[in-house]
Amino acid sequence: MTKTVQHLLSDIQALAPSIAARAAEIEAGRRMPLDIVEKLKSIGVFRMLVSKSSGGLEFDLSSAMEVIAALGRIDGSVGWTAMIATGASIFVPLASKETYAQIYAKGPDVAFAGSARPGGTAEAIPGGWRVNGRWSFASGCLHADWMAAFCIVVKDGKPIPGPEPGMPVIRGCILPASDWQIEDTWHVAGLKGTGSNDILLKDIIVPDANLIDFANATPCVPAPLSHGAQQVLPLLHSANAVGMAEGALEALTAMAKGGRQQFSAAVPLRDSELFQAGLGRAAADLHAAQALLQSEGGRFWRYALAGTLGDEALLTQARQSTAWITGTSLSVAEACYALAGAAAIYEASPLQRRLRDLQTAAQHYTGQQRHYAPAGKLLLSEDVCVAPKTLVA
After folding, report:
1. For the chain, which residues make up each domain, given as ranges?
2. pLDDT digits (tens, 9 = 90+) for 61-116
3. What is the CATH number of domain 224-381?
4. I need a surface site. Which of 55, 94, 131, 190 has the fewest CB within 10 A?
5. Tell me: the pLDDT tens digits for 234-264?
6. pTM of the shown model
7. How far is 316 from 377, CA to CA, in rounded Å?
8. Burial label, 227 (beta-carbon count in 10 A; 0-12, 13-18, 19+)
9. What's the per-residue H, E or C state across the chain?
10. What CATH number matches the domain at 112-212, 3.40.50.300, 2.40.110.10, 3.30.1330.30, 2.30.30.110?
């Protein structure tokens, strides 16, 4: 771990008590308070994976995931906000040099938001593209500097067929946040503070430079992770899930150490062998999730340095790992909630919030269990059914 990473983690630890104390405010506001966003910017969170040539810190993947997990341990919505901003910065080098320069014209601490769903259309017109659409789950849109979303390219109102059978041509549209409309739709069960509202564009004329072929673009600046941005994004989701599970286990342990004794129980929680066994099992599950996350972070970083991160099989494996890590993190939160008893049901309890946040994360496309199916199909298509090979640097 470099001194820069250590310094950032130390800054996060210093902010932890003040952010944790505002958990109710974050949930009630259904967005990230702007002063917290500015604090995260000021200590360097949003520049973690930005190229050094643009003033960024250019962390390796494992270091960035450790920072996201540390923030998720404080608050799930805070970790999610950082994860979105960090993940989006990996895609930015795939834009044109002109657009990239515009985005970082005022420095590397740029807040991004957007949606990966192709919820809009882009039609070529003289001088650019006419874009229309509505996109959901635009986390962080209320504090974003720039926003991006995916569009189906159409001609005369009909989708243009892409190179893959049955799939249309897809392009990403990236514009300053001021060009987008935001509709207040984020009334949800968990991750309430992420402000993941719908965003809209209505007959917006977009310059050629701001419509991007993310699937085939070459990074305009040196950026190892940008060669496989889709492969990296699921692992960043995993980091936040692990951080939230760590927070749940810490909250339960603190409760037990505080001497809590449940109604009609013979001894306090900390002296109950049944409680101790449940706590130990939850901790073992968490350690397994942490270990897989650490292993995948190192493995994918080696592929990034070798320039081979864009392999489709790695995307399948990243989603498989993320499904397992997210599911396991959720099981840790469920166990902690159950072990705490009735005390966990109150809104003041961090355990009910951790559970809701992880349930919501598990519902997100990236963490869903259906990603096991492509992984199984991949194994069946190989000559030998073995674990994914690890690239030796």
Report:
1. 3-94, 112-212, 224-381
2. 999 999 999 999 999 999 999 999 999 999 999 999 999 999 999 999 999 999 98
3. 1.20.140.10
4. 55
5. 999 999 999 999 999 999 999 999 998 888 8
6. 0.94
7. 10
8. buried
9. CCHHHHHHHHHHHHHHHHHHCCHHHHHHHCCCCHHHHHHHHHHCHHHCCCCHHHCCCCCCHHHHHHHHHHHHHHCHHHHHHHHHHHHHHHHHHHCCHHHHHHHCCCCCCCCEEEEEEEEEEEEEECCEEEEEEEEEEECCCCCCCEEEEEEEEEECCEECECCCCCCECEEEEEEEHHHCEEECCCCCCCCHHHCCEEEEEEEEEECHHHEECCCCCCCCCCCHHHHHHHHHHHHHHHHHHHHHHHHHHHHHHHHHHCCCCCCCCCCCHHHCHHHHHHHHHHHHHHHHHHHHHHHHHHHHHHHHHHCCCCCHHHHHHHHHHHHHHHHHHHHHHHHHHHHHHHHHHCCCCHHHHHHHHHHHHHHCHHHCHHHHHHHHHHHHHCCCCCCCCCCCC
10. 2.40.110.10
* Residue 272 identity: S
